[in-house]
TrEMBL record:
<dbReference type="InterPro" id="IPR012961">
    <property type="entry name" value="Ski2/MTR4_C"/>
</dbReference>
<dbReference type="InterPro" id="IPR050699">
    <property type="entry name" value="RNA-DNA_Helicase"/>
</dbReference>
<dbReference type="GO" id="GO:0004386">
    <property type="term" value="F:helicase activity"/>
</dbReference>
<dbReference type="Pfam" id="PF26090">
    <property type="entry name" value="SH3_HelY"/>
</dbReference>
<dbReference type="InterPro" id="IPR058621">
    <property type="entry name" value="SH3_HelY"/>
</dbReference>
<keyword id="KW-0378">Hydrolase</keyword>
<dbReference type="GO" id="GO:0005524">
    <property type="term" value="F:ATP binding"/>
</dbReference>
<feature type="domain" description="Helicase C-terminal">
    <location>
        <begin position="256"/>
        <end position="462"/>
    </location>
</feature>
<dbReference type="Pfam" id="PF00271">
    <property type="entry name" value="Helicase_C"/>
</dbReference>
<dbReference type="GO" id="GO:0070478">
    <property type="term" value="P:nuclear-transcribed mRNA catabolic process, 3'-5' exonucleolytic nonsense-mediated decay"/>
</dbReference>
<dbReference type="GO" id="GO:0016787">
    <property type="term" value="F:hydrolase activity"/>
</dbReference>
<dbReference type="Pfam" id="PF08148">
    <property type="entry name" value="DSHCT"/>
</dbReference>
<dbReference type="InterPro" id="IPR027417">
    <property type="entry name" value="P-loop_NTPase"/>
</dbReference>
<dbReference type="GO" id="GO:0055087">
    <property type="term" value="C:Ski complex"/>
</dbReference>
<feature type="domain" description="Helicase ATP-binding">
    <location>
        <begin position="43"/>
        <end position="201"/>
    </location>
</feature>
<keyword id="KW-0547">Nucleotide-binding</keyword>
<keyword id="KW-0067">ATP-binding</keyword>
């Protein structure tokens, strides 16, 4: 990374601006379509030597801009690196560029593949370029252009920081071409790139070469969302929705995909992509279609599909074909439908993409990853939901996510109009949907964070202070600083308003109101802590409760008995007590949620009808069930001493008792609101300023304590070793290498251990480790887990949580695969230990292991020679069959 804030603009030593323009004019003349205005502007800026940020809708034609830069690189004997966020997109761009410029001129680097890396145009994942920049790879020689496709991926919580690392690390003289879907803060993003890279031109457009219509699919009929003026929800659609909602048969729990496809076919809207935000949903949709009589292809199309599938999959063994359900998959393709999601074999996904792009497939049920740059335009796009699971919870789609998904609709040169269709269910609010269509794009937010590998690579080239300065140049800090300036301005405004309020009251009154405000805040904080410390009912006990069970609940802090009328749902339970009937929060259930007894209630009666309630109360009164003595045992029931002290100060204040509660509330309302605003703003300022720098200090402390940095922030031998290990558990991995914990393993055992390093549990409960296959492996697992515990303990000490837990769920399956077992056996082994692993999941996991093993083969010291040799052998052992074909 360069320590200068602004770099020198690229020079024009090899060719003049006029010559560059001639090259580009010839490129433009050969295009099958005339370029749009935004494309022409971006290409002109590239010719002038500027960095360029291009923000345009999905399908608008941003790739043409990158191709123009590639033509310049080819003519100037220079290099262009084209980065993508995912390997699938890298593979597709590689194939596209090879078809355009020939295999001799194009390379591919994706971690597990290295093809012609010294070519003039090299496609790679963003992580590969980051790694090359950190180690100063010779491949960077003659690099002139870096294209960052899908640069809005910078906001990704898990991998987005890599984009910022690359931008901050670009050598002087390299032009950056950042291609993004529409974002709401392009000017801010461009200003940051200007500050850290050099002069940057911004090209924004909301122009779509194929116009898009907004529609709603309701009961197998497709309706326009908007009225003729294009601004308001169509009244006709609203009437139809109201009619359906009041119909007795409108409760459709799951979409009927057959009806969706038939509606699309009837309206001549195929080929289409149906976005379903789950793998299981995609597979279920495909199963619905295969069970039906639906066939969307002609005989000639089926022949072309089968021919292409057989050519691409001829190498698959009979056993693999059976495990992969190849015949069923091929048959579904022949009828015109397919699924596309991360759980599929990469080869199968590629075949689906190829067939769809040729117009042979008519409907693809896909997860949102398909929206990420893959070239699969359709006539129509269907969204079955407007919410998406983010790994933790379901959240509404942002306007940018929504726009990227529907942007697949409309094929340039084929369709006059693209059709975006939202499947109607009761969760869809038509006004909210209209707002989503018309909303401005979401702003790009940095997800930059400090990691171990990043820190040692920074300190390998820069002093401690210079490294801190560089971190302050990140987009994350740039945004934080802007936010702090805004918050500081708001704080000044609030302070002025507070002063104006205080000017109208006496100092004595101001002091009294401050005391009351502080008492209220402290009381609220104590009550929150007290409620948190209350013993909670266990989920297991609550799940066992059934109609008629007697439980103890807390009402106004007092224990009473209640009879369960319905099993718990949505964090509440319906009960009847001696005085009332209603749904109470599960947090009010005491005695650990266990039933204290049971009363027989007739099943035929409604839960809360008068007869049932009367019967329950009578039976409860005549039962011998009593409230347990420990039912409401709570910690910290008595307020702390400082709260008593505050209450006493309020009571002793001269104004206490002279004002009613209503008068105090009236006086305190504006003041309390302003004080609350002030506290929030001050908290934001305190926690935003220098956040990255603070994290940098913490990470350096951990590395020093672990022996990777000296006291003056120089790299030790261990720190140098860490520079070349890139994974989310990089410090654990490096520490295991450093301790020689993996020496003495055979290739299959090493592959199993690396599986635990690279693997990640899909659910919080997925932390079971299958029994080790050998005694040596059992000991090595124990050693590696000990190392992980030590690192996690060190992280907790410094209040930094960077290393995820190890995951041993697939270690046995990987061991079997490395030992030569067939795919089917490995999947069965995984299933034996409670894991539902698809062939695609397994292949992707093996590819991650290959990536880390490849890093270990490059360790540059005789001290680790055994590990280097074993890594070569392990890599060779697992890179076979469908794994080798999927690289």
């Amino acid at each position: 990374m360069s320590t200068s804030t602004t770099r020198k603009p690229p020079t024009m030593e090899q060719t003049t601006l006029h010559a560059r323009q001639e090259i580009l004019d010839a490129f433009i003349a050969r295009r099958p379509f005339s370029l749009d205005e935004f494309q022409q502007r971006a290409i002109s800026h590239i010719a002038e030597g500027h960095n360029v940020v291009v923000s345009a809708p999905t399908g608008a034609g941003k790739t043409v801009i990158a191709e123009a830069a590639a033509v310049l690189a080819l003519h100037q004997s220079e290099k262009l690196f084209y980065t993508t966020p995912i390997k699938a997109l890298s593979n597709q761009k590689y194939r596209d560029f090879c078809a355009r410029w020939g295999k001799d001129n194009v390379g591919l680097l994706t971690g597990d593949q290295s093809i012609n890396g010294d070519a003039s145009v090299v496609v790679m994942t963003t992580e590969v370029l980051r790694n090359m920049l950190y180690v100063g790879s010779s491949t960077l020689h003659d690099l002139r252009y870096v294209v960052m496709d899908e640069v809005h991926y910078l906001a990704d919580a898990f991998r987005g920081a890599v984009w910022e690392e690359v931008i901050l690390s670009l050598p002087d003289g390299v032009q950056l071409i950042a291609l993004s879907a529409t974002i709401g803060n392009t000017a801010e993003f461009s200003a940051w790139i200007t500050a850290v890279v050099g002069p940057t031109s911004t090209v924004c457009t909301d122009f779509r070469p194929v116009p898009l219509t907004a529609n709603v699919l309701l009961n197998s009929t497709i309706y326009p969302l908007f009225s003729k003026n294009g601004k308001h929800v169509s009244q006709h659609l609203q009437d139809r929705v109201d009619r359906v909602l009041h119909s007795p048969n409108h409760h459709e729990r799951f979409p009927n995909r057959i009806r969706i496809v038939e509606a699309l076919e009837r309206e001549n809207l195929l080929p289409a992509i149906d976005f379903i935000f789950s793998r299981a949903g995609c597979d279920s949709a495909l199963a619905q279609c295969t069970r039906s009589r639906l066939t969307l292809t002609t005989k000639k199309e089926r022949q072309r599909i089968y021919q292409h599938v057989d050519e691409r999959c001829h190498h698959l063994s009979e056993g693999d074909c059976e495990t992969l359900h190849f015949s069923q998959w091929r048959a579904a393709l022949g009828r015109g439908f397919a699924a596309h999601h991360a759980g599929m074999l990469p080869l199968f996904k590629q075949v689906v993409e190829e067939l769809f792009s040729r117009g042979l497939l008519k409907i693809v049920f896909a997860t949102s990853t398909l929206a990420l740059g893959i070239n699969m335009p359709a006539r129509a796009v269907v969204l079955e939901k407007l919410t998406k699971f983010n790994g933790t919870t379901h959240e509404e789609l942002t306007s940018s996510q929504f726009a990227q998904l529907i942007g697949r609709a409309g094929r340039r040169g084929i369709d006059a109009t693209g059709h975006a269709i939202v499947y109607y269910n009761q969760e869809v609010d038509l006004d909210r949907l209209a707002d989503l269509y018309n909303a401005d794009p979401s702003p790009l937010r940095s997800s930059f964070k400090v990691g171990y590998n990043m820190v040692v690579n920074l300190l390998a080239h820069h002093s401690y202070e210079d490294a801190r300065v560089l971190l302050h140049q990140s987009f994350g800090q740039y945004q934080n600083d802007a936010a702090v300036v805004h918050a500081q301005r708001e704080l000044t405004r609030v302070d002025k308003q507070l002063a104006a309020v205080d000017a109208d009251i006496s100092p004595e009154m101001s002091d009294y109101l401050d005391l009351i405000a502080k008492l209220n805040a402290e009381t609220k904080a104590w009550e929150k802590k007290r409620n948190k410390d209350k013993p909670r009912a266990s989920k297991g006990a609550l799940a066992k409760l059934r109609r008629g069970d007697v439980i103890c609940i807390s009402v106004r802090k007092k224990p009473i008995l209640g009879v369960v009328l319905e099993r718990p749902r949505k964090n509440r339970i319906l009960v009847v007590t001696s005085t009332w009937v209603g749904a109470t929060p599960l947090s009010n259930v005491r005695h650990n949620g266990h039933s204290l007894g049971h009363i027989h209630l007739e099943k035929k009666c409604a839960a809360d009808d008068a007869h049932t309630v009367k019967l329950a109360r009578r039976e409860l009164a005549h039962s011998n069930i009593r409230i347990p003595k420990d039912a409401l045992r709570e910690k910290n029931l008595h307020p702390p001493a400082h709260l008593h002290h505050l209450r006493e100060k309020v009571r002793c204040h001269p104004l206490h008792g002279h004002l009613t509660e209503a008068e105090i509330a009236a006086l305190n309302r504006d003041r309390a609101r302003l004080l609350q605003q002030r506290e929030a703003l001050q908290h934001h300022i305190d926690h935003s300023s220098g956040t990255l720098a603070t994290n940098f200090v913490h990470v350096c402390s951990i590395l020093h304590d672990a022996g990777y940095l000296t006291s003056d922030y120089q790299l030790t031998d261990a720190g140098t070793l860490l520079r070349f290990i890139y994974c989310e558990t990089d410090l654990i991995c490096t520490e295991a290498v450093r301790e020689h914990a993996w020496d003495g393993l055979d290739p299959a055992e090493l592959a199993a251990v690396i599986s635990a390093i690279t693997g990640e549990a899909r659910k919080e409960t997925d932390h079971y480790w299958p029994p080790a296959q050998t005694e040596v492996l059992a000991d090595t697992f124990a050693d590696t887990q000990r190392i992980a515990r030590d690192i996690h303990r060190l992280e907790r000490k410094h209040d930094v949580l960077l290393s995820r837990p190890l995951y041993g769920g697939l270690t046995t399956a990987v061991y079997r695969w490395a030992s030569g077992a067939p795919l089917e056996e490995c999947l069965i082994v995984a299933k034996m230990f409670g894991l539902s692993v698809t062939p695609g999941d397994f292949v992707r996991h093996i590819r991650q292991i290959v990536d880390l093993l490849s890093q270990l083969t490059k360790l540059d010291t005789a001290e680790y020679q055994h590990l280097v040799d074993c890594s070569y052998q392990a890599k060779k052992a697992i890179q076979r069959g469908i794994v080798a074909e999927s690289l």
